[in-house]
Amino acid sequence: MESKRLLVTDEEGNVCGSLLLAESDERIPLKLSEGQLRALHAKCNALDRARDSERGAARAAALTDACSELGRGVEHFSDLSASEASWLLDRLEDEILAPSE
Q1: Which residue has the higher pLDDT, 5 or 77?
Q2: How are the residues of the chain apportioned to helix, strand and coil, as percentages rounded to the nearest 5?
Q3: Three-state SS across 41-59?
Q4: d(Cα 22, Cα 25) in Å, to the nearest integer?
Q5: Which of 8, 47, 68, 78 could crosslink 17 through cysteines, CB 3.0-4.6 Å?
Q6: Does 89 have pLDDT greater than 70?
Q7: Cα→Cα distances 59→14, 28, 63, 95, Å
Q8: SS3 73
Q9: What pTM was estimated for this model as a whole?
Q10: Tens digits of residue pLDDT in 5-20
Q11: Angle formed by the axes of helices 82-97 and 57-70, nearest 10°
């Protein structure tokens, strides 16, 4: 794998440092944010209250859905990337807004 060096200059053009950039096709997904984690817990709690379910039932169902959709084990919301958490938040919002049966 080839790497490249990027020179860092100040406002006058003087070199003041450098960064080593590695070439890679592998993308490292961003971890979910604290806000996303809080929102996941809040939406699951809201679903439990709306359905008069036992506390934690919506969280367990959401984690099961994530496992099925992502094709890998997801034991905790913190196992999700930012984009995966976004997908799950949208799914939970749809469930919250769906009419009760």
Answers
A1: 77
A2: 50, 15, 35
A3: HHHHHHHHHHCCCCCCHHH
A4: 10
A5: 8
A6: yes
A7: 54, 26, 6, 13
A8: coil
A9: 0.70
A10: 777 777 787 777 777 6
A11: 130
Q: Which of 75, 73, 66, 82 is nearest to 34 (CA)?
A: 82
- Structure-block tokens of residue 7: 């020179």
Calculate the dihedral angle through the C-alpha atoms of 44, 45, 46, 51, rounding to the nearest 10 degrees: 90
Question: What is the Cβ-side half-sphere exposure of residue 88, based on CA atoms within 13 angstroms?
Answer: 34
Q: Distance of alpha carbon 67 from its chain centroid, rounded?
A: 14
The Cα–Cα gap between 32 and 96 comes to: 21
Mean pLDDT computed over every residue of the chain? 86
Q: How far apart are CA 32 and CA 37, in angstroms?
A: 7
